[in-house]
Amino acid sequence: MASIKGSADVVIVGGGVIGLTIARALALRGVRDVCLVERGGLGTEASFAAAGMLLPQVEADAQDEFFDLACKSRDLYPAFAAALREETGIDVELDTTGTLYLALTEHDQEEIERRYEWQTRAGLPVERLSAAEARELEPCITESTRGALRFPKDIQVENRRLLSALANSVKKLGVTIATQTSVDSLILEGNRVQGVQTSRGRVSCPTTVIAAGSWSSFIKSSPQSPIPTIEPVRGQMVCLEAKPRLTHHVIYSPRGYIVPRQDGRLLAGSTSEHAGFAKCVTAGGISTILRNALEISPAISDLPVVDTWAGLRPRAADGLPVLGPCGEIDGLFYATGHYRNGILLAPLTGELISEAIVSSQR
Ligand SMILES: Cc1cc2nc3c(=O)[nH]c(=O)nc-3n(C[C@H](O)[C@H](O)[C@H](O)COP(=O)(O)OP(=O)(O)OC[C@H]3O[C@@H](n4cnc5c(N)ncnc54)[C@H](O)[C@@H]3O)c2cc1C
What we know:
alpha/beta; six-stranded mixed β-sheet; 19 strands; binds flavin-adenine dinucleotide
């Protein structure tokens, strides 16, 4: 294999949704020589496996800094999707129908009641529906529904189309892309980044971004400041075919979810498993997902299963994303640990990291 281009202004390690979004944001801010290094193919890991839900409100128990970031990123999506369409012609199928959160047990009912209370107090858009109202909106949901919340601003994107649009956009913007190439270590001089050592040779660069998802901590840095530990949390998915469409909303319960795509696929998810890097689909995983999906909608019972897959969510010790300058090593930035929310947080991550890099170079 030919050796890699020897220098760049910024090297981004990892070509998932996070690395691609940062590469695009840097190029749009006028950084000329951006090089994205990806071990396999672009957008083939967690970002490909995801369900594409953009649901900060559905899952939030309180208004904290993370919640504010997540809402901010969600609200960037309409402009982000429109810009990608303009640049690439690819429609990322941002579906703004909204999300229904069902209460199916007494415990679920208490939980949605708490969520409704704090979110209405905070002035957030959320509607409380009776069981009859919820079933009128989405007749496929179970007759055992006790009530529901509708989150009109919690929406979904077709994440695989998003990855194609981002890959297309960064190529058009002149980002150098090295696929089938892994970054093994950082090249440091004192406490400064001088470059990266890859499987195809060295790239000199004053700035490096670690966006390598679940594999981030394998990249060798200095013994004094190793890259923060990121662990993989496996999520499995089942894809059904629903033609005509069974539902228009994303439908969520405390145990599972179903996500309708425009082409008739209906995704059901997911699991959260600490199973190392074994990215396999298991009998137990699929059975749990289907049980939870059937609890939401017994109507899925006759639908054909057309695909299954698994991906590894990158999780830091506290479950929060690791974002921004490393601090101890000049020129090193982190954009990893997005865990369950990397698709949601991508546009804001792109903005924050590109802004931090450009202002550090001023
Ligand atoms: C089943 C499932 C459902 C999910 N659903 C949602 C959802 O609905 N909404 C949401 O917001 N999020 C969801 N997520 C989470 C989301 O997928 C992740 O948070 C997000 O994809 C992380 O993006 P990333 O770019 O950091 O990681 P990845 O997409 O894993 O990309 C990291 C890339 O780095 C590359 N890499 C690793 N090491 C190296 C190296 N040394 N050199 C070069 N390249 C390297 C890898 O090959 C990979 O391509 C889900 C995840 C799963 C698994």
